Every structure is written in structure tokens, then in C-alpha cells.
Records
---
Amino acid sequence: MFGYTFYWSIVWQKLPELAAGAALTLQITVLSMILGTAFGAALAIGRQGRGLGLRLSTAWVELARNTPALFQIYMVYFGLGAFGIHLSSYVAMVAALTFNNAGYLAEVFRGGLSSVPKTQMSAARSLGMTVGQSYARVVFPQVFKTVFFPYVNQLNWALLNSSLGMIIGLRELTGATQAAQSESFRTFEFFLVAAAIYFLLSKIVEVSARLIFRRLFRT
Amino acid sequence: MIEIRNVRKSFGNHEVIKGVSLEVKKGEVLCLIGASGSGKSTMLQCINGLEPIQAGEILVDGISVHAKSTDLNLLRQKLGIVFQQYNAFPHLNALENVALAPRIVRKMRPKDALEIAREHLDYVGLSAQAEQYPTSLSGGQQQRLAIARALAMKPDYMLFDEVTSALDPELVGEVLDTIRKLRTNGMTMIMVTHDIAFARESADRVAFFDGGVICEIGDARQVITAPNKERTQQFLQRVLH
């Protein structure tokens, strides 16, 4: 029963395809995190307010955090398709992952926002800064410092979540691996290598985040 | 000139300012004194529009602070304010703290903003601390930094809200010296203070706030050494003895 023979050379032949998949994975991750950060910040501010803004942002955060990411991707790709809005799998994936990231990041930012004294806002406004400038230049830089590590956590999570892109036909790392292995059925070898690549990407993200943190906040 | 006309201000059902009128002319120094909760600090926050008012009007150089058509961000460039709790920006060093608003609000080039910041740090005696972050500065240094930050916007008026109340006694002097220097340079100032001796020495006029109204206003020496109103006498007796 331990008679499995590893057959690696087929994997090396397909390595360029896996590398292209990994590049797409990174691209989706970074894009959905940048957009997710912008929306997440807006949601966190919205949840401090009242009225329609509060209700909309709360609905977003609740949906994003309490339903599976897989369901969210299906909703954007097939669900919107049912209403005649046909997105490419790439756009659908970035949109769905942005939706998911923004929901989690809103909660991360909310914690950070409550750690910045309200008087910081008054001080910024009293110097003639607009609300937007005050958030961008005074409040959020302080928020980022407090939430930096939960933020990197979400970045890692987004990287791994992007593997769900396979189910809507995206050739990101998992999709590319799936396609490559289906020609040879060397499933074990291919997915081991893919897992190693994911691990490597995650570590690169984590280490660069730490370096950036030190450079940015001089600690 | 700052004109305050019959201003009323409430927090919920609680009215803290119950009809206050006063005028401050260019170059004048006015001190607001009175017990905690008498409405003096709130009055300052209303002057630069940080707090809305329920009735009356505040005019700064003829511009109504609370009118919907007023560009508050533009108006605030005329009105520097310094708070009791310094409120230095902790993620920026001293130089960047001062340079931020000139760069963002006045749209100066970074180099020019830093130049302005250096000048103002020098003015308050913090040249040596330019690269330090607020957490490594003393309370007195942070408060002088806050003054430099406000001055860098080249305001026409300065508002001081109990700026020495949170300081250790031995650090009060350096902040008061900075304010004295401003007075010598002709800055128009409104100061909320509990330091009666400082008010007598540096103010042209003193207004005594009591229960949300001005109980007595007049020449600083007269109000403090020979007040006309009984309430003023009682207050001064309490704080001076």
C-alpha cells in the first residue's frame, strides 16, 4: 500500500503554467486588498455614523463576514449573471474578494479607529483640514499602526481565499494546478508543489509586511 | 475683529452658554476666567466652529462662523487654537507635525512647508527637538509644539483653551513664556485660563463667566483686583486663597 512512486518530471514541465497561475494569484490578492482597504475604511467610518450609511455598511459587513466566501463568489459570478450582468471570471473574482476583504477589514479598522482619541480629529480640523484630509493624514495613519498585524492576517487570508477562483474557471495557482494535473492525474505531486508555492507566497507577504512596518513606523 | 452676539449653546437639554455677547479687537488679549463648567471652553470651541450654536452669531472679520455659506476650513486658517491636551500627532515627528497643515491645507511645496515648520519650532524654542516624536517630548514641549503647529498657519487670532492645566507645575513657565512672546509680537488672543496671576499680567481685558453668562467684563487689573460684582469677588476669593 506504500507502493506510490513519485513522478516529478511532469510537474517541472508544467512549472511555467504554475508560475503564471501564481502571478495571477498575487495580482488578484493585491488588487482585492487595495480595493478592500478603501471600501473597508469607508465602511468603518460609515459604521460610526447614523442613518442610511450605518445601515448599508452594517449590512455589507454582516453579509461579508457571515457567509462563505465561496457563496459570495457564486453570487457575483452566477447570481449577477441571472440578472443579465455578465462579468468575466477575473472581474467577478476581484469583486467578490474585495467584498469579502472590505467586510473583514471594516471590523479591523473599527477597532483601530476607537483607539484614536476624538481630539485628534478636532486638532486636524482646527488647522483647516477637511474631514477627508483629517482621516487620510491624521487618523488613518494611526489606525494602521494599531491594526497592522490583523491587517497582514487578512492579506494572507485573501491570498489563500483567491484559490476559490478555480471554481469559476480562473487559471490562478489552484486553477492552473487543477488543469495541469488533469492531463496526467499526478494529483499528489501537483498539489504538493502548489501548496509549497502558496506557503512561499504567504511567507514573502508576511516578511515584507514586517519590513514595511518597521520602515513606516520606526519601531 | 471677533464679534460674539447673543450666543446660546446647548448639549442636549443642557444649556451651557445662555446668551453671551462680546467683542475682541485686533491686537487685544482677552482672558476668560470662571469656574469649571461655566461655559468658557465651549465658547472657544464655538468661535472656530468646532461646536455648533443654537442661537446668536459669531463674526470673525465680518464672516459669520456658523453660516452655511461659510467655508469653515478657510476661516479656520485665521483662527489658531491650542487645547488643554496638546493633541500632537503621535505618528509624526515635531517638524512634520508643524509642516503638515501648511503642506496639505495651504498646498505649499514640501520644502517650503518644512522651512516654515523650522522657523516656528525655533520661535517656540524646540529647534533641537525637531526630529523627535511627541511621545519623547515633555508636556511643556508638546504644548509648545501645539502652539508652533497653530502658528505655522499664520493665523490672525489665537485661541488658548486652558493650555497649562494639564502640565506639571515646573513646566507651566515655558508655555507661558511662549504666550508672552506672542503678546509682545501683537497677536490677538482669547485665553481660557485658571491662572489668575497670568491673566492679570498679560490680558488687556478679563471676562468672568458664571453659569453660562458673562457676569463681569472689563480691564484686567480692575476685574481681578477690584471686581464690581459680588459673584466675581466670591470666585476670586476661592481661587486666590
---
Amino acid sequence: MLWPDLLEITLRSLLISLGATVIASAIAMPFGAWLALSRFRNRRWVIAILNALMGIPPVAVGLIVYLSLSRSGPFGVLGLLFTPTAMVIAQVIIITPLIASLTHQICRELWFEYHDLLISLKTGKWHRARILLRDARRGLITAALAGFGRAIGEVGAVMIVGGNIDHATRVLTTAISLETSKGNLWFAVSLGGILIVLSVIVSLTVHGLGKTERGGRW
Amino acid sequence: MIRVIWQCLFIMLAATVQADTLRMAVTTSFENSGLSDVLLPEIEKDTGHQIQLIVVGTGQALKLGQAGDVDAVLVHSKAAEIAFVEAGYGPYRREIMYNDFVIVGPVSDPAGLGKITTAVDALHAIAAGGHLFASRGDDSGTHKAELALWEKTKMGHGGRWYRETGSGMGTTLNVAVAIGAYVLTDRASWINFGNTGDFQILFEGDPMLFNQYAFLPVSDRRHPHVNARAVQEVETWLVSAKGQALIGQYQLDGQNLFFPNAEPRP
């Protein structure tokens, strides 16, 4: 494998998983905050199911997305199977429950503190949710990073829906799998090293932008 | 935030709308051997078609063709290919090239394959001695070929010594080398395999181990979105003098991996 190829695969991994994290966060964070604020009949059940979905096997998600996007499946006409879009869809499904559950947990604890104040100010539900999300942003960054980590390190689902096509859908994890199958074990391990370095860089960048984890700030 | 999402979506969608690409499901040996790296750039240069390879076992490749998720398949299991054509999933099969299967194993050769002359006897010796044998177990062309050989030995192959990996050729070779098991592999995958340990080819040369590769277009009557014109041009290129010569000239470690044998159109 050549250096431009390696760079291309690394960038593709980053783009797909960042895209999936942004989309999943946009769905999961408002939902998590809403869940922390709302009281309804089957709330316990919704939370229990959400927590269970955190451990959803990526391969199963991959298979479901595959069957839906296959030409013989319900969304076959879109022609999305074996494209990066299909990989983003699979990753969004895998990490949305994780981010939503963590968001709910973080917002619930904040809600205990803010409850009396926000009720007395007669704020609307969405207003309250916005305040919670804003003040919990550091915890939410960690939740998003957890989702990103799960997305970029995942191999089963992206292999199934992406097909590991060279110059189209090959990402770091599927390349590791391929090189292992060719018996190039040391090269596969090196790719794993790149994956870890990439995650560290993303984490540092996000904390840098969010001005968190700085000296003197708690 | 919303703008970032739209930009991400746009990048993803832009990547999907590529002009004149063609999806082909191919058997692992076609890519693992490195032959695809030689042929695909030439095909793109001569025909203008960019081929995206989905690398899977023969069984899964035919399933992808059946569902219409690829435009053509290149596989190696004659019986399964004929069934595919008869079921109407593809109009015909076109033979392109061949190589052969070999049995590799630990250099100590506990089953004594070195003194055996037929493939059936070789498997018989492995089973009779209860020596470890690693099987693909994944409905691939190699797996089907192996099962056909076991059928001929008239021996069961379900003991503790028989290990099904349920994975591709490379993974199965990794497992076999790790546990010291005999394994049936196509020659190209073996020559191109990196983690060989103390393994070597212990049995080869039986005509039973002949391994034919064929190209099958996916039916454009059943799946109108299939790019039949491009598939036709790629097929013509593969059986052309240039395509056949490139296949025949491809060598690794001084050995030929594939032998072209395309016939004129039936």
C-alpha cells in the first residue's frame, strides 16, 4: 500500500465517522435532554431500551442496513449500498443510542440542580432543554467522543454495507482486516496504530476547541 | 452545526455519483493475488470504465449478483455458476482463466502427502490419521471444491480434526498456520500470502485440482439498473488478446499464477 493510499483511507475513515458523529449528535442530544425533562407513562421502558441499544451488535446493524439498501430491499432504488453514505447510515444507527443515553444521564443530573430555578422562571420545555444542553456541554463533548470512538473503531457493519472497495469505501478498520487476511500482520498492526493516533488527535482537537481540560479550570 | 451536517452529506453524496463505474463481485484470489492491480488500471485506460471490486467468496458473490447489487461477478465454481445462469440471474458464463488448487501443510508432513499421487488419497490420508485440517466453511469456490473432493473419499469429515473457519482464504491460512493444519487453497492466494510460517505446498498436480474462473454478467432484464453495455465492454477486454496476454504474463516470485483460456464467444 502506498502513502497516498494510506492518507486517502485515513481521511475517509475520519470523514465518515465525523459525519456520523455530527448527525448522531444532532439527533441524540436533543432527544436525551427531552427524555431527562419529560415525565410520561412508559419513560422507564424508553430508557431501558435506549440503554440496551447502547450494546447493539454492529454486525446486526450492518446486516439490517444491508438488507434495506440492497437492490432487492425496500430502499434499493436509491443505489446506496457499497457507498460511503451507507457506512454513515450504519454508524449513525450504532452510535445514536450511545450518545442519547449518555446525554440523558448527564442532563438528568443537571436537571436536579436546575429544576427549581427553571420551573420558577416559567421556561418552556425546549427552552429548558437548550439551557441544559448548553451548560452540560463538556459532558456532551465526552459523549460525542465516545460515539466517535465507537464509530471509527467499528469494522463489522462498515465491511458489510461498504464492501471494502479500494478507492471508494475502504477505511482503516476494513484495511486492517484485509491486510490480516493477506498475512501482512505487521502492516495490519501499524494501521491499528494510525487508528489510535487519529482518535487521540480528534480528542485533543475537540477539547482544544471546547477549551476544556485546561490547567486551572475544573 | 446544520451547515456542517449539510456539508458532510454533500461530500458523501458527491462520492456516490461517479460516472461510469461498474461494480464487480470477485473471488478473493483475484484481488489477493495482485492480478486485479494489474488488470484494472489497463481496463480503465482502454475502456474508460472504472471497476469497483467487492471481494467475497464465490457463494456470496453469486448472491450479490442475484440481488442485483453488482453488475457482474468473477468466480470459480462451475456447478454454482451453471445454476445461477439456469435460474435466470445471468445470461451466460464466460470462462476467462484457470489455475489450480494445492494442499499446503506443516513441513513435517505428518500425513505423508509427499508419497501420495491423487488428491482423493491425500484427503483420505489426512482423515484416516486424524490430522488437523482447516476448511473454509464459507460456501466459497474453494470450499465447494473441497467438499466435492471429500465426497469422493467416501469418508466423513466431521471429527475434532476438521476445523471450519467460516472465513476467507487468507484468514483460513492464518488459522491453519497457527494450529498446524492442512488446508486446501488456490495457488495464487498461497503464493501471495505473507504469514506462511513453516508451511509449504505438500500436494499438487492432480487434474482433479483444476480451478476454472469465469465471468458472469448480471441479467439486465431482471435488474434494469445494471450497466450492461459497460459489462459487455469489460468482458470483451478480458477475452481480448491483450487481456489474455496480461493474465498469462502475471508472475509473482517467478511463478505464473493464472493461465488464460478464454474461448471464442459460444
